[in-house]
Amino acid sequence: MIRLSAFIILLAMSACVSNESDKVILKKDLGVKRFNNITLELSLKPFKKNDPAYFKAVSQEIFTQWGSLLRHADTISLMLWTADGSEILDYSGSLDQSLEWARYIGNPNTKHEVNSSPDDENLSVHHRAFTYMDDTPEFSYGDLKKIVNSLKTTGEKMTGKPVRVGATFDPGPEFAKSPFKYQKHPEICMGATMGAKTFVCCYSTLNEDKSSYAGFPNGIEQDTPFGTFFGKQSQHFLTDLGFDYLWLSNGFGFGMETWSATGAIFDGEKFYPEKIQDTREKIVNFWTLFRAECPDFRIETRGTNLSTGIDLAADGVDLKSIYNGGYNLLPPPNSPWAALNGDFGLELAGYMSRIAELPDNRYLFRYYTHDPWWVNSPWMDRYGREAHDIYLPMAVTTINASGEAKSPTHLNFLTIDDSYGNMLVQVPDEVIPHILQARRKSPDQPGPIVWVYPFDEYHEWASSQPERLPEIYYGDWFIRQSINEGFPLNTVVSTNKFVQLAKSGNKLFNRSTLVTIVPNAGSELESQLIDFVQDGGQLIIYGPTTYASKDFLALMNIKPVEAISGAFKISLNIKSDLITNNTPSIMNHPSDMSGGGIETRVATGSADTKVLVQVSQGQTKRDVVILRQHPDWNGGAVCYVRGTNSVTYKGGHLLTPDDPDQYFSGNSLMRLTLAELGYSIQYVKQKESLKDPITCISRHDNAFFFAGYLPNLTVEQRLKFPLGAPIIIGWETELKDGAATYRFPKSFFEETRFFVDQQSGMISCFDIPLATKGTRRRIQLKGLENAKVSFYPPKSVSPDSIKVVLNSTYPFGKGAVEGRRSTDGDYYTYENVTGDLIVSW
Q1: What mean pLDDT is predicted for residues 148-156?
Q2: CA 191, CA 319: separation in Å to the nearest integer?
């Protein structure tokens, strides 16, 4: 488990403070960027009595438990999971109306009665529901208004900050009974996310209904758009009950099949490009209709479980038009896949694809502490009290048009109560220190690997070249699985912003390896990528070359040939993982999941070009990883990775990876290729089927931070970067062939400022006592043998305040050594070092 300083733990345990107190305390706690907003999500289950005094007591406990974190927010929000959103649909306008609320554990919209005991005791809570306690209170809409008011007034009094309360709408059958969705208006349930006709589709229409509703006192007319009905009902409900905003859950507003790899455009076997334009218009029209009836309340969104490109290609979701529509919404956060099934690749790739562009400057990180419906509390069980799903997504950053690395402005916790309405003090006590540490060390510059995401290109292709939908679909799935196989991606910038920055002369990415698709022929992106490489930059291109220009093909030294797919024998000319059992030599390239077949060969034999990976079917060969480093490029390099998406669609929500004991995974080639560009990340494990570690490498205050998760603790990692082996502070490492070896714990978040060029030996690196007045930090490296040591000091430290001594003893005043500063000023290098090196500042 990740180590935390006593200071951070004490900080998390401290009491709630007012704004005036914040001004004093936060001056001493430098480095924690304030959040614009922190949201605590909860159900009504903690309100176990219908009593205003009890409402107040619960409210006080909430702000007490989370006080040490809330002081880092400008605004505090409480998001109420009252029911499933049907409380909005059913609202008649009367506060005396009885409230159906989420008093259940499990799914209450099945054929089994709540609290029933069917003969089949193996039925899960997904098939039946129970009330969370025997005597659940009854609430009216008026009582809900009192709870909203209690949360606001109590929170504002205790914190001195603005407190908002939000309502929620979920399209599915979870949380509460919904006669509106499943009995009165099943026509709106077009999605099959949890079975046939289970999810409301935002662009559905309603049948005639003579019942009276707040926004429709004379009933609903035939074919009323759901967006119109829902917007008008939301306006009345939010206004009358004192809510401040609305959260749209589980992908509502973003297509029809919001959890699935399939959708309105892709059925798992075939794409239907003729449907794309109509579907895109329907989704955007929902937002327009909704906003016509509910114009001003802020909308916050959960989004789908997938990514920008996948949603667009499979379900027609035009995120660009939604972002640019002026709908006053907060973009979707990271999905909960990591908690649900360990799919960090999809969580991180989807997150980055959505924040490459933003409606404004705001975006959200959401963390899964409890589940108030399905009898699990991820912090306690799914995560096992490990913080990997904090440190990994919080290591992600997006680069804005000014070249700044931007962290999330908003933070949500789903939820602060468990399925029984309990709010365990242990959870905030343990979670808050990790949140603050990740925030304190959040990225402030691009990481070593930067995804130049084709946000505009994908939307343009879907509109003008719909035949490229399979290529759009492939791209994000490929990056997803590459991350799952250890590709250390943490930074995203849109192609549009990259071009703007490059044209302005900004050298922000000179220290990073860029990763992107084949650019459109003759585009500004193509021009800037070519200049980047020829000026000394490193670039990885992935995906099909079907639409590549002659100039870009010439840059990569590639010629197009006939595309082929299927099973190939694979030949590697790069360092691969060390597997005790044999690595499969057959790779399957499914053209339907990989944007087409493999169509690339080296154009001309040249000393500046290497074929790193080749595949063959009999005598027919294709070059799938090609590295070119021209001597006139000032150290620049372009590496083409065709990119096989080693997956199939077998039904269910996601694509299924190939059996790793039978097929070589094409997605692993992204990580393995990095070794040729100076970043070697090699795994040592017993067999291929052991899942690979997930790693993000971020930069903060000139240091490198390694955030990660180990699905299997027996896997060893060997790391070697351009300046040598990364030596993590607080660890010992054995050097093997110049690489640092580590067996990390289940979750980790570790810092390095040192890289050592040394072939073998044992090196330790630890903070040691400061010992002298004015010293802020002192670190000792031991075990150096004729080594070259590179040191990255904090940005705020002046060269004069850095003191480096060799083989010195307390108080470390003797044995000074001189280093050579790099041309960019980022680091210092010390040559021929043997013994113990102590660095202070």
Answers
A1: 98
A2: 19
SS percent in the chain: helix, strand, coil, step 5: 25, 30, 45
The dihedral built from the CA positions of residue 683, 685, 688 and 689, taken in this order, carries a sign that is negative
pLDDT of 768-812, one tens digit each? 999 888 899 999 999 999 999 999 999 999 999 999 999 999 888
φ/ψ of 588, rounded to 5, equals -100, 125
At residue 674, the 3 state secondary structure works out as helix
Q: What is the mean pLDDT of residues 583-606?
A: 96
DSSP state of 584: P
Residue 135's CB: how many other CB atoms inside 10 A?
7
First to last CA, the chain: 29
Q: Which residues are within 8 A (CB) of 24 and not within 5 positions of it... i.e. 6 or more apart?
A: none
- Backbone φ/ψ region at 812: left (φ over 0), alpha (ψ -120 to 50), beta: left
Residue-wise pLDDT for 209-251, tens only, equals 999 999 999 999 999 999 999 999 999 999 999 999 999 999 9
β-pairing, 609-617 vs 620-628, is antiparallel
733-738 long-range contacts, CB within 8 A, separation 24+? 733/762, 733/763, 733/764, 734/760, 734/761, 734/762, 735/759, 735/760, 735/761, 735/762, 735/763, 736/760
In the structure encoding, which two tokens stand for residue 799, read together? Answer: 């060269």
pLDDT, tens digit, for every residue of 701-735?
999 999 999 999 999 999 999 999 999 999 999 99
User: Tokens 């597997």, residue?
Assistant: 579
pLDDT of 679 strictly over 90: yes
Radius of gyration, alpha carbons of the chain: 28
CA 586 vs. chain centroid, Å, equals 32
CB 613 within 8 A of CB 598: no
Q: DSSP alpha helices (H): ranges in 441-585?
A: 455-464, 469-484, 495-503, 524-534, 550-556
Alpha-carbon distance 575 to 698, whole Å? 24
Q: Which residue is listed with tokens 């001594």?
A: 805
* Residue with tokens 């991606």, as numbered in its chain: 489
CA nearest neighbour of 471 among 513, 510, 503, 517: 517
Residue 684 has pLDDT above 70, yes or no: yes
The token pair at 305 is 């479980």
How confident is residue 8, by pLDDT bands cut at 50, 70 and 90?
Answer: very low
Of 104-118, 374-388, 519-533, 723-737, the poorest mean pLDDT is in 104-118
Alpha-carbon span 451 to 129, nearest angstrom: 44
CA distance 209 to 223: 10
Q: Is 6 helix (H, G, I), strand (E, B) or coil?
A: helix
Q: Half-sphere exposure of 492 toward its Cβ, with a 13 Å CA cutoff?
A: 23
Note whether 579 and 688 are within 8 A (CB).
yes
In the numeric block, which tokens belong to residue 223? 């074919």
608: helix, strand or coil: coil
Beta-bridge mates of residue 414: 368
**Tokens for 253?**
């507003």
Cα–Cα distance measured from residue 271 to residue 314, given in angstroms and rounded to the nearest whole number: 8
- pLDDT of 19 over the 70 cut: no
- Euclidean distance between CA atoms 739 and 756, whole angstroms: 9
| Amino acid letter, 207 | N
Helix (H, G, I), strand (E, B) or coil at 812: coil
| Token duo for residue 533 | 């490489």
CA distances from 65 to 16, 191, 416, 559 (A): 8, 39, 10, 62
Query: Prior bond to 415 cis, omega within 30?
Result: yes
Closest CA to 197 of 220, 171, 222, 228: 171
774 burial type by CB count under 10 A (0-12 exposed, 13-18 middle, 19+ buried): exposed
